Amino acid sequence: MPVSVSAEVFDWGKKVKHIRNFSIIAHIDHGKSTLSDRLIQATGIVPDREFMDQILDTMDIERERGITIKSNTICLPYKAKDGKTYSLNLIDTPGHVDFTYEVSRALASCEGAFLLIDASQGVEAQTLANLYLALEHNLEIIPVINKIDLPSADVEWVKTQLKEDLGLDPQTAICTSAKEGIGIQEVLESAVKLLPAPKGDPEAPLQALIFDSHYDAYRGTVVHTRIFQGRLQAGDTIMFMSNKAVYKVEEVGVFQIRRVPRNELTAGEVGYVIAGIKTVSDTRCGDTVTIKNKSCAAPLPGFKEAKPVVFSSIYPVAADDYQELTEAIEKLKLNDAALIYEKDSSAALGFGFRCGFLGLLHLEVVQERLEREYDLSLIITAPSVRYELLLFDGATVMIDNPALYPDPTLIKAAKEPFIRATIITPDRYMGAIMKLCMDRRGVNSNYQYLTSNRLEMKFELPLAEVVYDFYDKLKSITQGYGSFDYEILEYRETDLVKVDILINGEKVDALSQLIHRDRATERARLACERLKEEIPRQMFKIAIQGAIGAKIISRETISPFRKDVTAKCYGGDISRKRKLLEKQKKGKKRMKMVGQVMIPQAAFLSVLKTED
After folding, report:
1. Core-most of 113, 221, 241, 603, by most CB within 10 Å?
2. DSSP state of 550
3. Does an H or E element contain 354, and which?
């Protein structure tokens, strides 16, 4: 997006004391993107005629859902009341629990954070989780109470929560309405006055943190980086410390909606690096960049590989679209390093891909992007988690695909991942939440009152129970007032079984699921009922069965179309009618033996549904 930038822009950053690096952290839908919009408008970096809402959110899905999926960065020039011009680097962060690691790397690039709280909703689960993340990085926290213009806003109640729940000084809280533009100047001034300037030695060996990256079709991967030590300029030969990949820098600069090139980036600055990197997966979030021949002593702490926790298979509705799906996933992977995929095939659905995702939201985003941006019709199999199986021969295998489940007689023990779920809710929903969590095999529950009528409840739950429909049920029973956050714990022993679905006696591999034994009958019965509704009637009887090995645990029957063969018999001997009925019965039996049941695509999707 074109924007006029004066020549003085290129002189910022030379005085480190005039730089402020900060982030805005909040629970989903507390107004983070709207506040970012007002800060951008207040600094005049985008002309009014070119401005649009959620300007930092580049995807249609982000705008429609009101969430940030891909974090962005922008360098804001701000002339403070003291007459000096400051360079404010706003490092935007995703708001969903699926992207917690990306949030932690963005916070590691900052010296301070604005903690945004909705004046009508108050402190929620991710407000707490993101605050703890920020405190782990020793950031300066400035509370901001947003949406004070709402009729339901209760600023004093939120200030009480700030003091009692979060241990923050309510007197320092800034009251704003990002929608109405109230309090925006106070936010900018507090960034200058209360947030510390970055530290670092521009003459030391280069030590820079990668906190994000995106793919440009013409320039390759654009690396978002924060310089902690040293300096970086075009022509330098850099090395990524996690994979030892070496590249020559083509361009450095800062983000001001569009990329603005600079001669160099020095310690304390946030900007971008272009170095002819062909894939996003080479630039791992949290990795450290240094100069090849003058490397820093050690990488920055906190780096870890992004590991998928939810797995599902993606197939095209039409088998002819497989090539288009292949190209679409390869292109999407260029912009989403966390997406992991491998080729997969199914007797029922043909060729597709087995994919790994950071969470259910990540799965939904990938599905929507494939369908919208590449005009594909897709079938997604039931999401699964990764199980650890200990075999009698001493081997340990990790499986996420029911098709790879070994013979049960070979398995000594099975383990599944557990999470610690934190739920914040009004206390009137306590009983319903307790029942929901206990039904989902929740253990070690405890709770504490945050205020007189708000609870923080903690449960240890199997991740497999959460990925199915837990979040939807929680929102339903709390009427939208319950907020949910989780962290992965460890693998624990479980009684795992593979449930197969048989249609007309044939296993349909795409409908198989790995489930805890206690839930197997219920889930199999539900799947059979769904399939009965979706599969059309045939000329022969169709049996839909759920089975564990050879044991049938549920069954539904689709009745056949039937001609009234006795209609022409008027009176006479009953044996004539019996003979005609027996003849029809034999014909139906022959039909069933050679008949093929065509399963419509809607039937595969119906199994993913939970309730009407």
Report:
1. 113
2. T
3. strand 350-357
Give the model confidence (pLDDT) of 315-360 as tens digits: 888 778 888 888 888 878 777 777 888 888 877 778 888 888 887 7
Contact 337, 281 (CB under 8 A): yes
Confidence check: pLDDT of 187 > 80? yes
pLDDT tens-digit series, residues 64-118:
555 555 557 888 888 888 888 888 888 877 655 556 677 777 888 888 888 888 8
For 532-573, write each residue's pLDDT tens digit. 888 887 777 788 889 988 888 888 888 877 666 666 777 667
Looking at domain 7-194, its CATH superfamily turns out to be: P-loop containing nucleotide triphosphate hydrolases (3.40.50.300)
Phi and psi at 602, nearest 5°, equal: -60, -30
430-439 helix and 463-477 helix, angle to the nearest 10 degrees: 160
- Whether the CB-CB separation of 526 and 534 falls below 8 Å is answered with no
Q: Distance between CA 97 and CA 361 in Å, rounded? A: 9
pLDDT tens-digit profile of 477-508?
887 677 777 778 888 898 888 888 888 888 88
The helix or strand, by DSSP H or E, that contains position 459, with its residue range, turns out to be strand 454-462
CATH fit for domain 498-608, picks 3.30.70.2570, 3.20.20.70, 3.30.750.24, 3.40.190.80: 3.30.70.2570
Q: Is the dihedral of CA 310, 315, 316, 322 positive or negative?
A: positive
Torsion of CA 559, 565, 568, 570, to 10 degrees: -80
Average pLDDT of the chain to the nearest whole number: 79
Contact 392, 386 (CB under 8 A): no
Query: Do 207-291 and 310-383 have matching folds?
Result: no
The amino acid that residue 567 corresponds to is A
Name the residue with tokens 């995807």. Answer: 59
